[in-house]
Amino acid sequence: DRYQRRVRGKKDILSLILVVQQRAEDLNAHGDDWEHFVQLYNSIDELRKAQPAFTKAQNKAESLNNFVKWLDQNGAWTKKKHHDPEEEKKPSCANATRVKVVTDVSEGSGLIAVKEIKKDSGVVAVPFELFMSKRSGISSSKEFETLFQSNPLLCQLPNLFLILHLLVEKYRSPVSFWGPYINILPTEFGTCLYFTLEELLLLKSSPTFSQAIRMIKNVARQYCLLYQILFHSPNKEKWGGLITNLRFTYEEFRWATSVVLSRQNKIPPSLVETSSSPPVDEAYLIPLWDMANHSNGKVTTFYEPSKRVLVCYALKDFAPGEQVYMHYGPRTNGQLLLNSGFVLKDNNDDSLGFKPQSLVSKESKQNDSDFEIVLTPEKLRLIQQYSLAINSEYVLKKGEDLNKNRFLQLLRILCSDQAPTVVKQPESSNPEEIVLSVPFEAELNALRKFSSQLTLLLKSYPTTLEQDQKSLEKLAVGSRAFYITQLLISEKQFISSHISSLSHSIEKKKKNRRKKLKHQKPAAEPTVAS
User: Fold this and answer.
1) Per-residue pLDDT tens digits for 175-186
2) What is the DSSP string of 444-503?
3) Closest CA to 307 of 77, 71, 68, 88
4) DSSP codes, 322-363
5) At a CB cut-off of 8 Å and minimum separation 6, what does 102 contact?
6) Closest of 352, 262, 315 to residue 121, by C-alpha
7) Which residues contact residue 380 at a Cβ distance below 8 angstroms, ignoring those fewer than 6 apart?
C-alpha cells in the first residue's frame, strides 16, 4: 500500500516512524479493529528490527552487590547503623538488617526476610533523595524543563517525563547517580507492550483485550511524537545536550515505559513540596521499595514529610526466609496484567467491566424463559435522572452486594411498568449510591435479565473454564501466556460466581414471597343478599 511504498523508497528510521504514526491514526479512525491493529503491530515490529539493539545483559550478582552498596551509602534503611534500643522499637524505620534483595524468586526480583518481621514494623525506608521524579530530572538537566516548556503537548502526558528521565540516566556519561538502580531493573517485562499477536489473540473475548490494543497504540503514538520532537524539531538545539548519549529506539522506549507502568508510585504533591519548591509531578520511581512484590492486603507504605522518607511497614508477620510482600493498592487483574505483567490468583480487589448486549427490544414480548424490555419515554427519563445509560460499561466487583450494583438499578427501571422507589438515599449527592426498589415480578425479571447478560458474556469466550485450566497446566509458570490464561480463568470464575449469586437471590426472593403469601389472612368472602 502507499505507506509501504514510501518506506521502500526511503528506508530510514524517520520514514518507518512516520508509517507507525499513520498506522496508529488509521487504527484510531477504525475503532481499534483487529485488522488495522495487525498493520500497526507489524509496522512497529519492522521499526524495532531496523533500529540497533542497545540493551546488554547485566551480571546479576555484580549488579545486585553494587545496588546494595549504593542503597547503604545513600541512607536507605536496610542496614543497621548503630545500636539504639529506643530507635529499634520505633516502627517508623527499619534500621536493622531485615530484608535482602534477591533476583531468583518466581516473580523475578523480590525482598526476602532475613530475620523475623512483625506486622506493622518498618521493613524498608527510602530517602526522598533516591527517588527518580520530575524534580530530579530537572535537577540533573535544565534542558528537561526547556523541552517540556517548549512543547506543551508533552505536558499532557505525565509519564513521558519519567520515561525520558530514565532513558537519559541509563546512558548518561559519566555513570548516572541512579546507575546501580537502573542496572538491577529487568531487561524485559511481561506488560502488554511485549505481547505477541498470538498472545493478544488469547485475550480476544476478554474486556482486557481492547485495553491492551489501546495501550500499545498510545505508546506507539507517544514514541513517534517524542522522537520527532527530540531529533527533528527546529528547536532541538535547545535540548541538544539532553540527547547526546540518548539511545532512543522503540525497544528502549517500551522498556522504560514498562518500568514506569509497573513500578511508579504516587505521592500527593502537598507532602513533598514547600512554598519555595517548584511544582512536582506525582509519579516517582522509588529504588528498593519497588523490589517488593504485590499481594492482597492494605496499603502500608507512607511518606513521612518531616523525615523526607518513604517507609513501608509489614502488612503481616514474616518469618526468616519468607518473601516479604506489600500491597500496591486496589488493582484489578486486568490492570496488573497490562501494566505489571502478572495476575494475582485470588485478587480481593478484582473487578470486571462489561457492556450489555441486545438489552432493549423494539416491541413488547414476554414468555416464560425471558422478559423482553421496551424502552419508553418515562423509562428513559428515569434512566437519565439516576445517571444511568443503556450502552455504558458496567462493572462487577468481587464480593459486592449485588443489590447495590449499578447495572441492576438500570434493569429495575427497564423491567418495571411503575416508577421505582428509592430505598437508599446516599448522604452525598452522588447518584451512583442510590438503590432502587420495584414490584416483586419486576425485581425477578431484572435479576433474570442480569443473569442472562452474564451468561451471554461467559459464552462469548472461545474456550471454557475447564479448557483454560488444562491449558494452564502445560504452560511455563510466569510466562506471558501463563498469566494471560490465568486472567481468563479468573474472569470466568468471576462471572460464574455472580451468576450463582443471582440465581441464589432469585430463589431466596421467591421463597420469601411464598412465606409471605402463606401467612397472609385470606380476604373475607363477600356476603350475598337474599
Assistant:
1) 899 999 999 999
2) HHHHHHHHHHHHHHHHTSSS-HHHHHHHHHHSPTTSHHHHHHHHHHHHHHHHHHHHHHHH
3) 77
4) PBPEE---S--HHHHHHHHS---TT-TT-EEEE---S-EESS
5) 109, 110, 111, 112
6) 315
7) none
What digits encode the pLDDT tens for the residues 129-147? 999 998 898 888 888 888 9
Place of cell 380476604: 523
pTM of structure: 0.87
C-alpha cell belonging to residue 8: 521502500
pLDDT reported for residue 18:
95
**CB contact set of 148 (below 8 Å; sequence gap of 6+):** 154, 155, 161
- What tens digit of pLDDT does each residue of 327-373 get? 999 999 999 999 999 999 899 999 999 999 877 654 444 443 456 78
CB contact set of 10 (below 8 Å; sequence gap of 6+): none
84 versus 78: which is more confidently predicted? 78
Cis before 174? omega within 30: yes
Interhelix angle 13-29/34-50, rounded to 10 degrees, is: 170
- H or E stretch covering 266: strand 265-266
Q: Contact, 231 vs 51, CB < 8 A?
A: no
405 versus 173: which is more confidently predicted?
Answer: 405
Q: Which three cell numbers stand for residue 529?
A: 343478599
Contacts of 86 (CB under 8 A, 6+ apart): none
Neighbours of 72 (CB within 10 A): 13
Between 56 and 298, residue with greater pLDDT: 298
The Cα 195–Cα 254 span in angstroms is 12
Query: What are the two backbone dihedrals, phi and then psi, of residue 146, each rounded to the nearest 5 degrees?
Result: -60, -45
Identify the pLDDT of residue 361: 57
CA distances 336 to 62, 202, 260, 298, 325, Å, are 30, 17, 13, 16, 15
pLDDT digits 0-9 by tens, 360-375: 654 444 443 456 788 8
Q: If you ran DSSP here, which 8-state letter would residue 387 be given?
A: T
CB atoms within 10 A of CB 382: 20
| Helices 250-263 + 159-170 axis angle, to 10 | 120
